[in-house]
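This section describes the prediction task in plain terms. A model, or a person checking by hand, is given the sequence of a single protein chain and must write out its three-dimensional structure as a string of tokens. No templates, partner chains or ligands are provided. The sample shown here is typical of the held-out split.
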Amino acid sequence: VEQEVHVLLDGHIRQAEKYGVDFDHWFLEMPDEPGAHNAKALGVMVRLCKKLYPRIRIYVNPSFWTGFDKDGVAPDEVIAGCLRDWYTLVDVSVPLVLNLDGRPEAWKYFTHDRLFNGQYNVSSQHMGADRAGLLQLPRICAWDSLSRSMNWWGFYSYHEPRLNSWDNTMRPTVHEDATINYQCVYAGVNGPVPTRASELIREGVQDYRIMQLLRQADPALYDRLRQEYLDGGRDFDSMKNRALDALLKKQGKEESI
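The expected answer:
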């Protein structure tokens, strides 16, 4: 097995080198959404990859999904037990957001000092993702990362249709994964067709970047806006505008000196 993995990794590395891409600009993705059934086996693979090529950066997006009727994800002790022997080797950690709530032992592994710590959320069009209640999720992802002092987030999905996403009559009324349209942009005759949700992904990126600038320029206001979100504030435009006003005032004072 080790020899097979060595050949596989060597092929990736040589391909990257062919295009002038060094270890700092690519990462190795592990199998999608691992959980209690395969996390320990995945850990063996991660340890082997790091043993063979310590500079390889590894991406993992733990899910530990158990179902809506079972608290969504596995209990804290199960998640922590699955991660204990290997997760600190991960360079890009993006767990399902539900793994971060009320799970203090797992939290230690998900916030370990590494290149990127983040989280991801999921919304699908068959659930009516253009409704106001779900529409804010792409933007909330950015503020969730800010509130948790994380530097990465993801939203599933930008474009992953399974059926004809333009035809509402084809959408099921029950959760059947093979027939869910996960997307917030649509295929159009002249190219991608955006939606309010896809625009809010852009807004979330802007919010995050503006807040990072604010953290340097006005840490006190940064903390107040971050706390406002933690207290339930969801007027994102107002929070962003207050941050922008503070940044512009700061810039004006510096230019006048």
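For orientation: Residues 238 and 248 are 15 Å apart (CA to CA).
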